[in-house]
Amino acid sequence: MIAETIFSAVSAAGLGIAAITAYRKRYLSAARIAAYSLVPIGLVLTGAVEWAVDTAFSPSAWVGFGLLGGAWLLFMTTRAVERRSGGTRKDRKAAAKAAQQDAVAPAASAPSIGPASRPVAQPTAKPKSSGSGEDFSDIEAILKKHGI
Predict the structure, then answer these.
(1) CB-based contacts of 29: which residues, under 8 Å, 6+ apart?
(2) Do the Cβ atoms of 17 and 57 come closer than 8 Å?
(3) Which residues contact 39 (CB under 8 A, 6 or more apart)?
(4) How many other C-beta atoms are found inside a 10 Å radius of the C-beta of residue 82?
(5) pLDDT at residue number 15
(6) Does the pTM of the predicted model rise above 0.85?
(7) Predicted pLDDT of residue 69
(8) Mean pLDDT along residues 102-131
(9) Do the Cβ atoms of 31 and 15 come closer than 8 Å?
(10) How confident is the model at residue 25, as a pLDDT?
(11) Rounded to whole angstroms, how far apart are CA atoms 31 and 36?
(12) What is the CA angle 31-34-39, rounded to 5?
């Protein structure tokens, strides 16, 4: 009840200031002041002030706002942790499966980590063939063509 009275007084004072401004022939400023001064009385007439006052002094409303804030905080925390850990549970399972498959060489039958169960044969070096000069003949032709 007191909030409605205060808002009505503020509106009346604003309209008085707008009238004085219009008397001084500053009509644009007077119209703007009148528009601002009509907002508080409009809020009173729509019931928004009564709702705000009832909400501000209601303990259950504050508990509700606190619960909404806590839910929002939990949601944002879980999103941040999810982004740092690498995605959803499905993504983590796929990554773990891929990492497990990468631990074994594609053609190997045993894991690549640990001691070898059989000796590893060293690849033998291929003898150089006499035809290796022919491999560079195309390159030599291109260089000669450009004068190098």
Answers:
(1) 21
(2) no
(3) 11
(4) 14
(5) 96
(6) no
(7) 92
(8) 58
(9) no
(10) 93
(11) 9
(12) 130
Instruction: Estimate to the nearest angstrom the gap between the alpha carbon of 114 and the chain centroid.
Output: 43
Tokens of 75: 């949601």
* Residue 115 confidence (pLDDT): 59
Q: Which two tokens stand for residue 145?
A: 């063509």
According to the 3-state scheme, what is the secondary structure of the chain?
CHHHHHHHHHHHHHHHHHHHHHHCCCHHHHHHHHHHHHHHHHHHHHCHHHHHHHHHCCHHHHHHHHHHHHHHHHHHHHHHHHHHHCCCHHHHHHHHHHHHHHCCCCCCCCCCCCCCCCCCCCCCCCCCCCCHHHHCHHHHHHHHHCCC
Contact call for residues 72 and 66 (beta carbons, < 8 A): no
pLDDT given for residue 137 in this prediction: 84
Distances (CA, A) of 83 to 38, 70, 78, 88, 89: 49, 20, 9, 8, 11
